Amino acid sequence: MLIRERQRKAGKKKLRIATFNFRGGGGVRRPDHWLTLRAQLGADVLLTQESRPPVNASADCTALWEEAIQGWGTGLYASRLAVRPLEVRGFQGRVTGGQLANDQPAGRPLRIFSVYCPAGKGGYVATMHRILDRLQGLPGDADLVIGGDFNVAVGLRGPDELLKMSNAERALMTRFTDELDLIPCWQTANPGRPLAQTLRWSVERSTPYHCDGIFIPRAWQHRLESCEVFAAPEWDALSDHNPVLAVLQL
User: Fold this and answer.
1) How many CB atoms are closer than 10 A to CB 102?
2) For strand 212-217 and strand 182-184, is the pairing parallel, antiparallel, or unpaired?
3) Domain residue spans in the chain?
4) What DSSP letter does each residue of 156-212 carry, written as one string?
């Protein structure tokens, strides 16, 4: 039985947000991304990076996708949710998303974006700052959810962790938490634990890179039920990234 069907039978009302980097569009030898994602995660909102458009998207699903390069891009897919696209100037195919027309969990407008941060001028941290500048510059007031592959650490590392954070990365995280008032779902739901591995690379599979994640408003912290990084052979066969799933109570 699918996850969403089990929830329906249990009478639970939740919002499940997942993010996953397909790696180079998925490729003809790895055709099962969409099938596996739908069956295993049951996400209401799916944020994709380095992906091709979905196959067999249902009629009640909002499907937003913008091409970046070589046939792959960044997407947002919302089951039974209407999302009005919003352009993020200068990042076509890298930042895709919009504003929900209804069903806002906190009674405020909600904007949600799938992000794939390129190296860009000055490197990943500098580019991520420019993306945040664009998101903050969108007109109107709204809650903000951002998920994707940020290519920088999306949590604060402890002093005993194998990988160390640069001062620039810490400053970026401070901007998320203090200026935008957003919290990283995985670290918030798993306090005191070393950051889980979300990127394995092909030749450096044991290094615990944690560059994929989901940020939600701090005001939603009490709604965050769980956040999990999925690691299993079926995911290894699809990408060098692991999917991240955050579950929110409504």
Assistant:
1) 7
2) antiparallel
3) 13-249
4) PPPTTSSS---HHHHHHHHIIIIIS-EEEHHHHHSTTSPPPP-B--SS-TTS-B--E
Phi, psi (5° rounding) for residue 96? Answer: -130, 130
**Cβ burial, residue 47 (10 Å; 0-12/13-18/19+):** buried
What are the φ/ψ torsions at residue 176 (nearest 5 degrees)? -55, -50
Query: Encoding tokens for residue 40?
Result: 């295993």
For residue 241, the 8-state DSSP code is B
Which residues are CB-neighbours of 48 under 8 A, at least 6 positions away?
A: 19, 20, 21, 22, 74, 75, 76, 77, 114
CA distances from 161 to 3, 30, 197 (A): 33, 33, 12
pLDDT tens, residue by residue, 5-18: 544 544 568 999 99
| Whole-Å CA distances, 221 to 25, 58, 132, 171, 216 | 33, 31, 21, 22, 8
Q: Where does the chain have alpha helices with state H?
A: 3-10, 33-41, 124-136, 167-174, 185-189, 233-236
Could you please state the CATH topology (level 3) that the domain comprising 13-249 is classified under: Deoxyribonuclease I; Chain A (3.60.10)
Number of other CB atoms surrounding residue 56 within 10 Å: 8
CB–CB of 220/235 below 8 Å?
no
Residue 49's pLDDT band, with cuts at 50, 70 and 90, is: very high
pTM of the model: 0.89
CA nearest neighbour of 247 among 20, 8, 7, 14: 14
Please list, in sequence order, all residues whose beta carbon lies within 8 angstroms of the beta carbon of residue 209, skipping any fewer than 6 positions away. 153, 163, 197, 198, 199, 200, 201
Question: Which one has a higher pLDDT value, 155 or 102?
Answer: 155
